[in-house]
Amino acid sequence: MIARDGPELQGAELHDRLARTWSRKPGLIGWLSTVDHKEVGRRYAVTAFIFFALAGVLALIMRTQLATPESGLISADRYNQIFTMHGSTMMFLFAVPVMDAIAIYLIPLMVGARTIAFPRLHAFSYYMYLGGGLMLWIAFALNIGPDIGWFAYTPLSGPEYDPGKRADMWAQMITFTEVAALALSASIIGTIFKLRAPGMRLDRMPLFAWAMLVVSFMVIFAMPAIALASAFLISDRLVGTQFFNPAEGGDPILWQHMFWFFGHPEVYIIFLPATGFVSQITETFSGRSIFGYPFMVLALVATGLLAFGLWVHHMFATGLPRLGYAFYTAASMTVAIPSGIQIFCWIATMWSGRPRFAVPMLYVVGFIITFVIGGLSGVMVASVPLDLQMHDTYFVVAHFHYVLIGGAVFPLLGVVTYWFPKITGRMMSERLGRWGFGLLFAAFNLTFMPMHWTGLMGMPRRVYTYPAGMGWDVLNLVSTIGAFGIAVAVILFLVNVFTSYWKGEPAGPNPWGGTSLEWATTSPPPPYNFAHVPVVESRTPLWDVDGGPLPVMTGLQVDERETLMTTLIDAEPDVLEASAEPSIWPLVAAIVTAILFVGSVFTPWAIVWGSIPVAIALIAWFWPKKALEPGEEPVSA
Amino acid sequence: MSAPHRFVRDVSALPTHAFGNRSLTWWGVILFMLMEGAGFALAGGAYFILKSHQGDWPPSPILPPDLLAGTLFTLVMLASEIPNTIVKKKAEAEEIAPVRLLLPIIAAIGGLLLVIRAFEFGSLNVLWTDNPYGSIVWALLVLHTTHIVTDWVDTLVLTALMFTRHGPTGKRFVDVSENSLYWRFVWLTWLPIYLLIYWVPRW
Question: Would you call B166 and A550 a contact, using CB atoms and an 8 Å cutoff?
Answer without folding.
Answer: no
